[in-house]
Amino acid sequence: ARDGATSRVRGSRAVSRADAGRYLCRATNKHGSAIRSVLVTVEYEPSIGETGCPARRLWVEGTPAELGCAASGNPPPRVACAKLGDGQDPPAPASSNVTRAHAGTYQCRATNPHGSALRNVTVAVEYSPAAVSLRVLPSANVSHGASFSVECRAEGLPAPTYGWALPPAPNLRFAADNRSVAVAAAAAANRGLYTCTATNRHGRRAGSVVVRVDESWLALAASLGSLGAVTAVGLAAAGGYYLKTTACKKGEYNVRDAEGSSEAACLHQQRHDRGEIYGIQLTQP
Q1: Which residue ranges in the chain fall short of pLDDT 70?
Q2: Ig-like domain spans which residues (predicted)?
Q3: How far apart are the C-alpha atoms of 175 and 154, rounded to whole Å?
């Protein structure tokens, strides 16, 4: 009987793990009895379950690299895990720390004399933001009045959130995920240093870019304005010189004819305190 139970075990049958335990064997005849205790163990092939070997693991970059996986079996099985695709065991905790290269799928094998069992484990590696890069589209050299955008990209797990430090201006528009900022009708207030900071629960990292707003066209416009003024003064002087040097022809001129005639001239020439005065007499229409 098992463990002092009154029921008796008779005959033979297929062994199961439930048969393991301590049995009391009693031999009896008319002269007496003898008792002996027997311990029965049941050996069986390995198995790997979710409890001892979760199918998904989360590692953090820089921590010891360790992939523990427990399996059941009798005798106790040996468990070895290797990353699929390279056949290498994960580094021992004392020899290496986790890097992003450790992410992937590992196959764990439990083995004892009665067989083996397999289980795949997916490992994800979290890490602080890295490789922050900024890009100005279409260019970091912007013409006054043109539109441009600054995009920020960063690696990181979990996916980082983004923050900005940039020249304050009213013409800024941020994307819904805050990864980019668009500027319409660039002005002097939009030039300067644009800094993007990527953050997750493992840390933060920043990157910067300088945007230049080219306002040389304003100087050009001012120059052209000055040139226009000088030109107007020059034309006025030239006109006066023409009138002054054209031979005077006395007579009456119709204004319509005088405007288009090469013979248009002054009719009256007088000397005055301020110099010579020339005039054109027009007939009544």
Answers
A1: 4, 6-11, 86-95, 217-285
A2: 46-124, 129-212
A3: 16
